[in-house]
Design brief:
alpha/beta; 8-stranded mixed beta sheet; 11 helices; 20 strands; binds aspartic acid; binds magnesium ion
Length: 402
């Protein structure tokens, strides 16, 4: 007998038929003698719809506390419906909200972090041989207020339960059957991976592959929770995410792309110490997350700084830059949001020279210009014109993965 934690995303429980499909998957494991805890997201696009409703009431943006009160309702609906489906199939089941399942978080509404998970209730329900259905994405803070963990947070709820309960298996069910070497909608010959390391998955998740929430991967790595990403629509093995993989080390594991990028340049800044510090400090104070950074070599006492941010932070970024240009001195600001970031990820590149050259050659052969480059030990990212985004993913994929 094992303890299995299963997480089902919004598309897996989008309607009654799918809720029953999930109920059957859960019951199968239960019938085999296992303990099962299932974490569920809100049905389909419910969370987005709730957010639209909130902005209909207050277009300036409602308070974050009330947003959490509202958004957490989506998961409340899906856990009750799923529990009802399992009841209907004739098995003992109980649904629990985040706080009932023991999730204590900090007080950062809409982006709360889990502080602790009190597992007494979960254990008591399992001891009664109940199937336990838990609302993902939510918890309670020290003021007894409902909090949510940030978009896509149900993955993290599931990993937290698996870690705290020392589960034997943590399965993340979604609408794709695993993690692919590139988005299969763009690259027809993309391959499903049998295994991937936490670090590679973390890079891919952060770089725009939308299968797993990156905080959940971070947590899985920290507590060494092995994950399986698989489809709720097909019964077949998915992709295993773990520390060390047994498969042959490939040069690169996958290609990711992110189109939610904007590029800013500030030209003709004084070439003196402290300029970069002040600029990025001002951006940090506004909570603007900077990604790729490039500074030119100083020439005639001036230098240029170019960097990228998420597209939806363009407005605030522009404000910071305008002010900075006024106060510190700069000639002009250049802005472009028709850009795309293409990245390759793989622990294999640590020990192989020539990976960057091979990526750049693939882009060059397709006539694609590189605007910016950034690298880490296990990834290389380039910024290109968005028009060539799909083509770039394809040619880079072809260069590394046959
Ligand atoms: N329902 C929430 C969202 O859409 C949480 C989740 O799906 O993981 O972001
Ligand atoms: Mg969702």
């Amino acid at each position: 007998m094992a303890l299995i934690v299963k997480k089902f995303g919004g598309s897996s429980v989008a309607n009654a038929e799918r809720v029953f499909n999930v109920a059957n998957i859960i019951v199968e494991d239960y019938k085999a003698g296992n303990d099962v805890i299932a974490v569920v997201s809100a049905q389909g696009d419910t969370t987005d719809e709730l957010i639209s409703k909130a902005y209909e009431i207050n277009p300036d943006g409602p308070s974050k506390r009330e947003m959490d009160m509202l958004m957490s309702a989506g998961e409340q609906i899906s856990i009750a419906l799923l529990a009802m489906a399992i009841e209907k199939l004739g098995y003992p089941v109980i649904s629990l909200l985040g706080w009932q399942a023991g999730f204590k978080t900090d007080s950062k509404y809409s982006a709360a972090r889990i502080k602790s998970l009190d597992t007494d209730r979960l254990k008591a329900e399992l001891a009664k041989r109940n199937i336990v259905i838990v609302a993902g994405f939510q918890g309670i803070n020290k003021y007894d207020d409902i909090t949510t963990l940030g978009r896509g947070g149900s993955d993290t709820s599931a990993v937290a339960i698996a870690a705290a309960m020392n589960a034997d298996l943590c399965q993340i069910y979604t609408d794709v059957d695993g993690v692919y070497t590139a988005d299969p909608r763009i690259v027809k010959n993309a391959k499903k991976m049998q295994e991937i390391t936490y670090d590679e998955m973390l890079e891919l998740a952060t770089l725009g592959a939308q299968v797993l929430n990156n905080r959940s991967v971070e947590m899985a790595k920290k507590y060494n929770v092995e994950l399986e990403v698989l489809s709720s629509f097909e019964r077949k093995p998915g992709t295993i995410v773990k520390e060390v993989i047994t498969m042959e080390k490939m040069l690169i594991r996958g290609v990711a792309r992110d189109n939610n990028v904007a590029r800013f340049s500030i030209i003709g800044l004084p070439d003196t110490p402290g300029v970069a510090f002040k600029l990025f400090n001002n951006l940090a104070k506004k909570n603007i997350n900077v990604d790729i950074i490039l500074q030119s070599v100083g020439r005639d006492g001036t230098k240029d700084i170019t960097f990228t941010v998420a597209k939806n932070q363009s407005k605030e970024t522009m404000q910071v830059l305008e002010e900075f240009k006024q106060s510190v001195g700069g000639q002009k600001i250049i802005f472009d949001d028709k850009v795309s970031k293409i990245s390759i990820v793989g622990t294999g590149m640590e020990t192989h020279p020539g990976v960057a050259a091979k990526m750049f050659e693939a882009l060059y052969s397709a006539g694609i210009n590189i605007q910016m480059i950034s690298t880490s030990e296990i990834k290389i990212s380039v910024l290109i014109d968005i028009e060539y985004s799909d083509l770039a993913v394809q040619v880079v994929h072809d260069a590394f993965i046959e």
